[in-house]
Design a protein that fits this description.
single chain, 274 residues, mainly alpha
């Protein structure tokens, strides 16, 4: 689906005129280099986060009075029981058990690393597409097209590493159904938007899509592509609270004895220190 989005964008750019098509080719060559830098996030997630894909061994609530933490056999038996017996409301459809609460600091560290990489990618690409335009073309019209798309290009590259990092987290959680269905929906939606842009550019009723407007709209779909992936993946992985959790938290704070009141705080169990 990623290739579908890129190929559809290239086909649409070819209908925008020679200057816009040339500018899109140059921007894509720079963007693909920066995409490789952002793809590190997926590798980091798949390298460091599988440790949280099963419940931790040796929890006191999972031990019987006759079991001690010093017994290797007891720990092995407990670990085997925990990995084979999913809790109520656990993973479905082959998804792995994943302790998001324990993994959140590691996920945050990976995201921060990827944000730093994204900052470098945005800075380098912006310098290349502004100060280094002469290395690709001497046509002032193509250079103007490249400059007009710079905000969308920078935003696309800034969001890319976050999207692929969350994609790696989904792979760790083995939520392949969510991943495939998301890419199918988002890919087809972007391809449809590209066809709409090509139609609007040819229509005299929409003069705003003429000249650089069509290329800006084309790269705006890339921003939408990245943002939609981040939103869906953040909800699917559990990194961001879903609508139900947000509503329950708001109701709990307003309701007497809820999470926002003293009574609710006394009744809630104390989370173990990590």
């Amino acid at each position: 689906m990623k290739l579908l989005v890129h190929n559809s964008a290239s086909i649409t750019a070819s209908t925008l005129g020679g200057e816009s098509a040339a500018a899109h080719t140059v921007i894509m060559s720079v963007a693909f280099l920066c995409f490789l830098l952002g793809d590190v996030g997926s590798s980091l997630a798949q390298a460091f986060l599988p440790a949280y894909a099963t419940k931790r061994e040796g929890n006191a609530r999972d031990q019987t009075p006759g079991q001690t933490r010093s017994s290797k056999g007891s720990r092995a038996a407990i670990g085997k029981k925990e990995t084979q017996t999913p809790p109520k409301g656990g993973a479905k459809g082959g998804a792995a058990l994943f302790d998001m609460a324990a993994a959140r600091p590691a996920v945050t560290s990976i995201l921060r690393t990827c944000w730093a990489i994204s900052g470098v990618a945005v800075l380098c690409s912006s310098l290349i597409l502004t100060l280094g335009q002469g290395a690709f073309t001497s046509d002032p019209g193509v250079q103007a097209r490249m400059a007009s798309v710079l905000p969308c290009t920078a935003l696309t590259l800034a969001l890319h590493s976050t999207a692929v990092t969350l994609e790696g987290l989904l792979l760790v959680q083995r939520k392949l159904r969510v991943l495939c269905s998301t890419y199918l929906a988002v890919g087809l939606a972007c391809a449809g938007l590209h066809q709409l842009i090509a139609h609007l550019v040819k229509s005299p009723a929409f003069p705003g899509f003429q000249a650089p407007g069509g290329l800006v709209a084309l790269w705006a779909t890339y921003v939408l592509f990245q943002a939609s992936r981040i939103a869906v993946f953040a909800l699917a992985t559990g990194l961001a609270p879903g609508p139900r959790n947000l509503l329950s938290n708001l109701v709990g704070k307003v309701r007497p004895g809820g999470k926002g009141s003293g009574k609710g705080l006394e009744a809630s169990p104390v989370a173990p220190a990590l």
